[in-house]
Design brief:
The chain has helices spanning 3-37, 40-67, 73-102, 113-140, 143-172, 177-201, 204-208. α4 (113-140) runs antiparallel to α5 and α5 packs antiparallel against α6 (177-201). The chain has 232 residues and is mainly alpha-helical. 78% of the residues lie in helices and 0% in strands. The longest helix has 35 residues, at 3-37.
């Protein structure tokens, strides 16, 4: 392992560790605030943060094994299968909880300024982490770090839906906006679960023929780059 690759791997470890620390704070605050006001959107947000904690932990473990010269591909694939399952279970939970709130089986969610604050802060933190992780992933050509970075950005989409639901409830007392915002998250949870399953079925030669890219050609890492400079 060269000195430069070792420095990049250390940087990746720091970025993933920062993300883990933030997700822990996020999960504790969101679950506490969501339970206090009966907000299904905030509870879903907190549970998703726990899943992101697990996903980040898998990547952290993988990097440490690679530094020690130990291959952990089979274990990583099993972990990603478990991550996919947790997203499907989360989608089912959010769907049942939201419907129960909308039909009146559960108390109406109350406004939460703390919830609005943590969702807004998360949008900023996750965007910054995405940029730095993608830059390092591009230099390392690490698909696992790219996947974890995209998950960081994916959190922003959830944050926007949650902010709208919590904001409408706080400003206009539209309690139904909270469970509706949570319902909007369900397709996103399912999509992320499916992507974790699809990662296991990717052909290794096909993955090696592509390159991790962070620029205008790939919408700054959100799509597979088809430019000549990024094809193997």
């Amino acid at each position: 392992m060269t000195l430069q690759s070792d420095v990049l791997r250390r940087t990746a470890l720091v970025l993933v560790s920062v993300g883990l620390a933030w997700n822990l704070v996020e999960a504790v605050v969101a679950l506490w605030a969501g339970s206090s006001v009966g907000s299904v959107a905030l509870i879903a947000f907190g549970l998703d943060s726990i899943i992101e904690l697990f996903a980040g932990g898998v990547l952290l473990w993988q990097f440490k094994r690679e530094r020690a010269g130990v291959e952990g591909e089979a274990a990583e694939r099993r972990a990603r299968s478990l991550i996919a399952l947790t997203f499907f279970l989360l989608a089912a939970y959010v769907g049942l909880h939201s419907v129960a709130s909308l039909v009146g089986w559960l108390p109406e969610p109350q406004p939460s300024l703390i919830g609005v604050a943590i969702a807004a802060a998360s949008a900023v933190v996750m965007s910054v982490l995405y940029v730095f992780k993608m830059r390092v992933a591009t230099r390392m050509q690490s698909w696992s770090l790219r996947a974890e970075a995209v998950e960081s950005l994916f959190c922003d989409l959830q944050d926007m839906a949650i902010l709208v639901g919590l904001g409408l409830n706080a400003l206009f007392s539209w309690w139904w906006a909270d469970p509706v915002a949570a319902l909007i998250l369900i397709p996103l949870f399912i999509k992320e679960g499916m992507e974790n399953l699809e990662d296991e079925e990717d052909d290794e030669d096909e993955v090696e023929a592509r390159r991790v890219c962070f620029g205008t050609h790939c919408v700054f890492g959100l799509t597979t780059c088809r430019a000549a400079c990024c094809l193997g």
